[in-house]
Amino acid sequence: MVYQYLFGPVPSRRLGVSLGIDLVPLKTCSYNCIYCECGKTTDLTTERAEYYPTDAVIREIDDYLSTRPHLDFITFSGSGEPTLHSGIGRIARHIRETFPEYRMALLTNGSLFTDPGMRAEVADIHVIVPSLDAVSESVFQKIDRPCHSITAAGVRAGLVALRKEFKGGMWLEIFIIPGLNDTDEELLFLRDAIAEIRPDRVQLNTLDRPGIVDWITVPAAEELERIAGALGFPGIEVVGGLASRSDIASFSQDVRESILGTIRRRPCTIDDLSRILGLHPNEVRKYIDTLVADGQIGEKREERGIFYVSL
Ligand code: SF4
Predict the structure, then answer these.
(1) Pairing with 54, which of 36, 92, 244, 264 sits 20 to 30 Å away (CA)?
(2) Which ligand 1 atom is the nearest neighbour of the CA of 35?
(3) Where does the chain show beta strands of DSSP type E?
(4) CB under 8 Å to 258, separation ≥6 — which residues?
(5) Please, are residues 61 and 75 in contact by the beta-carbon 8 Å criterion?
(6) Neighbouring residues of 1: CB distance < 8 A, sequence distance ≥ 6
């Protein structure tokens, strides 16, 4: 079976060996974050809909999991905001009931949790990883560039309500953009919001790969320590690269070689590679991460996006 909605499994920095479920077309999202690795949002929306047929997604899941592969997580993530899919609750319930041995994670911008119905729909998921990049309205607008109806105050309130109702784990992610959300003032606001939300974990994320804008820098390790200290949450983690991604069994040597061979012939974007190799862009991204980290390929910013080149 050729999968349309599943990708991977790929080694994830936080979730180990993770099978991705992509529930929305590229790039359907309620945000247009300046750091988004999937490119600019082309469908900026808060409209929940059955972007892909729920039954077809479930059929692929049943087929893939029928062989009981080893996975650390089944993760709702991909080309945009997964909670925009109106069938996410049904899909999660199906996995819980049919394959209870697997754990599910949801990577989300958290913007739709103002709606009690949305919060109820994610009850079957084991771990929710929502983002909260800023608390002040102006910084939130600059980083996340949301749909006009979404406010920083609303997102915060939604996460507070979710935490009260949700029985699983909540790992809050903050994407650090130097110059925007690392000021003393914003860190103080974030500290307050974290104390109110009470997540199980707080993780700081930084740019791993060029984003939409070219001026975002990566904070130095001491700077991240200062930020973590200012947020006042015990054991804040910095989401780091996977030192041995290439050793993870789910990585295929053939795919690595195909990517290297393709790039050797001509520089390619992630989308180019995805089309040429018939792989989901997120899967290609994971391989690209390893190859860049290993110094086997380099990046070049062009008008059409980031091109990967042989070194
Ligand atoms: S919320 Fe996620 S998918 Fe949406 S624009 Fe931001 S980083 Fe990209």
Answers:
(1) 36
(2) 7
(3) 6-12, 16-21, 28-29, 43-44, 73-76, 104-108, 127-130, 169-175, 201-205, 237-238, 297-302, 305-310
(4) 277
(5) no
(6) 60, 63, 64
Predicted confidence (pLDDT) at residue 269 exceeds the cutoff of 70: yes
Residue nearest atom 6 in ligand 1 by C-alpha distance: 33
Best mutation site among 108, 109, 128, 176 for ligand 1 pocket (most ligand atoms within 8 Å of CB): 109
Q: List the single range of 41-45, 105-109, 238-242 with lowest mean pLDDT.
A: 238-242
pLDDT tens digits for range 22-73? 999 989 999 999 998 888 899 999 999 999 999 999 999 999 999 999 999 9
Question: What structural domains and CATH numbers belong to the chain?
Answer: 6-240 (3.20.20.70), 244-311 (1.10.10.10)
**Does the structure show a pLDDT above 50 at 244?**
no
109 lines ligand 1 (CB under 6 A): yes
CB 33 less than 6 A from any atom of ligand 1: yes
pLDDT beyond 90 at 282: no
CA dihedral 40, 43, 47, 51 (to 10 degrees): -100
- Distance between Cα 108 and ligand 1 center (Å): 8
Indicate the top mutation candidate among 23, 31, 206 to test ligand 1's pocket, ranked by most ligand atoms within 8 A of CB.
Answer: 31
26 lines ligand 1 (CB under 6 A): no
